[in-house]
Amino acid sequence: MISPECMVVIPARGGSKRIPQKNIRLFFGQPLIGWSIAAARESGLFDTVYVSTDDETVAKTARDLDAEVPFLRPSELSEDFTGTDAVLTHWLKWLEAAGCLPKYLCCVYPTAPFLTGAVIQGSYEVMCQQKAHSVLIAISSAMTPWRALKCEADGRVAYQWPEHYSTRSQDFPKTCQDANQCYWLDVESYRNDPRLINENTFPFFIPRWDAQDINTDEDWEMAERLFELNQKKEQAHGQ
Q1: CATH architecture for residues 6-139+176-238
Q2: Alpha helices in the chain, H assignment, sequence order
Q3: Are the C-beta atoms of residues 176 and 124 closer than 8 Å to each other?
Q4: Global model pTM greater than 0.90
Q5: pLDDT-derived band of residue 3, with 50, 70 and 90 as boundaries?
Q6: Domain map of the chain by residue range?
Q7: Cβ neighbourhood burial of 210 (10 Å; 0-12, 13-18, 19+)
Q8: How far are the Cα atoms of 40, 123, 167, 176 from residue 117, in angstroms, in the given order?
């Protein structure tokens, strides 16, 4: 079998404690994972959108959305503390056994309703230009982390790094945050060093209003509010 240049996989486990069945809960008219599937397809880079899951209900939802789920992954790779690297390593071993390892693998999270095909395509271009180990979608830090406050056991707050109390904000190094949307991986490099982020990782920046990590009910409500605002903005520009 001829290996494709690019392949995409969406890791979507069934268990979610804080938001039950989060990955297939309806978000503006379709299952949350549906937005990720649509973005991957919109990029025009993939012949097939694959989903890796342990859950038959998630698998059925993904198939109904025209994604492929070639197998259900083992339950031990779907626990609360199972990291993305373990899931992707398992996926690549399955691809190797099938004789179809790609050059680049795109990992799209199922909780990324703001992700677009254009962002997937743009981050892929950075991947190729930089000859990177990986590329992640990033947002600039709204506030410098160097002045972070920690919550003490007795309820008070204190500076995490008190030595930076008087440092001017413009003198801190530029920082960013992982938007938790999408990663591009050089498969050969990643198999030698199975970490999403290492010393040869580059960011692809998007606006802060185009990202919201979704782990709690508050996160979900914030995502809904941002999504509505973005839709209204697009409609206004289209008039």
Answers
A1: Alpha-Beta Complex (3.90)
A2: 32-42, 56-64, 84-98, 117-130, 187-192, 217-238
A3: no
A4: yes
A5: low
A6: 6-139+176-238
A7: middle
A8: 6, 10, 40, 22
